[in-house]
Automatic annotation (TrEMBL):
GO terms for cellular component: cytosol. SUPFAM superfamilies: HAD-like. The lineage of its organism: Bacteria, Bacillati, Bacillota, Bacilli, Lactobacillales. This is Haloacid dehalogenase. It comes from the Bacteria. CDD domains: HAD_Pase. NCBIfam families: Cof-subfamily, HAD-SF-IIB. One of its GO terms (molecular function) is phosphatase activity. It comes from Ligilactobacillus salitolerans.
Length: 277
């Protein structure tokens, strides 16, 4: 059994390369870690459909932390069905209020809503098409809200995509709306991941670790972006990717090679205490 019993890894710009592939060295290291008794969990802002094929490819689809931690799914061996281990949706009218803020400030931002395994957007725009290509999933194009409030329930995550200056402006506007009870972090400069204020990848790690009676000191988190900060800073061992933002590297226990150089494999070999180099 590895000293680090469970590893949580971000997906984009961490597990996969810049051209969205899993390096053979990473795949081999993950499989060796799992074979040694470790639990490897993908922890991503992606929806379930954007995570599950990668998890199945790696042979680690028993658990998935989805939607930036707002939804944790468990694959039941007996039935092969995904069941909810943990979830924390947002308050009912947040989506309508967010759309109003964006319209009143004339922000050019693509608004996307995620509920369980479904992705909804009001327009099949450039940003949606790009995200569909990256995650190999498809959005349902429909109205997102009406005067009564959100039409998407339960509302687990809102993804706002746009140019960095528009995303920065939206984040500043949300700073002025504490009553919405939101957490909003960038997964990259053009993506603002919005969830309930009580949600983070670290909250999901705590829930999973408690469910499996694993002490936090025996957990590892690997990531690169702003939305990975809580888990990098608070897991037993926090690993920053070489391509990560400076703040992630600052709070991490260790920094490894970039996603294009197999940094996840390096982390598993060096810091879980199981895989010889």
């Amino acid at each position: 059994m590895p000293e680090i019993q469970i590893v949580f890894s971000d997906v984009d710009n961490t597990l996969i390369t810049s051209d969205f592939k899993v390096l053979p060295s990473v795949s081999s290291a993950v499989q060796a870690y799992v074979a040694d008794g470790g639990i490897f969990v993908l922890a991503s802002a992606r929806p379930p459909a954007g995570i599950q094929p990668l998890a199945q490819q790696l042979g680690c689809d028993s658990l998935m932390v989805c939607l930036n931690g707002a939804l944790v799914l468990q694959n039941t061996e007996q039935t092969g069905q995904l069941t909810t281990l943990f979830e924390k949706p947002m308050k009912a009218k947040v989506l309508a209020q967010l759309e109003k803020i964006i319209a009143e400030n004339d922000l050019s931002v693509s608004v996307n809503a995620f509920s369980n395994q479904d992705w909804f957007s009001s327009s099949h725009d450039y940003w949606v098409k790009q995200e569909e290509e990256i995650t190999r999933t498809s959005a349902t194009i429909t109205a997102l809200s009406d005067q009564a409030g959100t039409m998407i329930e339960p509302l687990h995550k809102i993804l706002c995509m746009g140019k960095p200056d528009a995303i920065d402006q939206l984040a500043l506007l949300l700073d002025q709306k504490p009553a919405l009870h939101l957490s909003y972090l960038r997964s990259k400069p053009t993506y603002l991941e919005i969830v309930d204020a009580d949600v983070s990848k670290m909250r999901a790690i705590r829930e999973v670790a408690a469910n499996f009676n694993i002490p936090l000191k025996n957990t590892m988190a690997i990531g690169d972006g702003e939305n990975d900060l809580p888990m990098i800073e608070n897991a037993g061992i926090g690993i920053a990717m070489g391509n990560g933002i400076p703040l992630v590297k600052q709070v991490a226990t260790h920094t490894v090679a970039s996603n294009d150089q197999g940094g996840v494999a390096e982390a598993l070999k060096k810091y879980t205490g199981t895989i010889p180099e």
